[in-house]
Predict the 3D structure of the following.
Amino acid sequence: ASDVIKYFKGSERFVVNVTDSEGNPIPEGNVTIALPNGTNVTVPVKDGVANVTLDLPVGENDVNVTFEENDEYSSVTIPEVVKTNKLNTTITVDDIDDVTIGENITIKGVLTDEYGRIMPNTNVNITVNNEKLTTITDTSGKYSITYKPTKAQSYNVTVAYLGNATHNPSNNKTTFTVNKIPTTTTVEVLN
């Protein structure tokens, strides 16, 4: 095997294409990937391709990819630097209907990563005008918090996920209005 080429997408999929010196796919064999934490992962080659899911930390990871010698092909080891990036995130916030003083509103939405996977049990920061609130997503990646506005005015709501070692931050905004309680006045003229 004269050439081992790696392709890497995100923090999960590692594909090794294994070819002979003429560029033909090697039909079968094994590839061993030596990971930075000292463990080795061995995956079978089928029709010149070895696929494996790796859990590598964010950053540059030095790995050694080895096609193991078999009856037809010699062994080859190629060092690779695999760069894994933080995943992007999306936090949604549902539209909030206008209310009247004294009524509660619910601020809710969903937190997902760039692949649409939910992010359960994760902190969400919420700012309503200048008031800071926090909540946590549930097992479905959803968050919800009840808020009781105290003044008749427009309110700006910002929801934010601050990010962590593996995920980038994201935020979203919405607005709602609190109206005064309507009044009715009647005038009675007495003679």
Observations:
- Residues 70 and 158 are 59 Å apart (CA to CA).
- DSSP finds no helices and 15 strands in the chain.
- The two ends are 110 Å apart (CA to CA).
- Residues 1-11 have pLDDT under 50 and may be disordered.
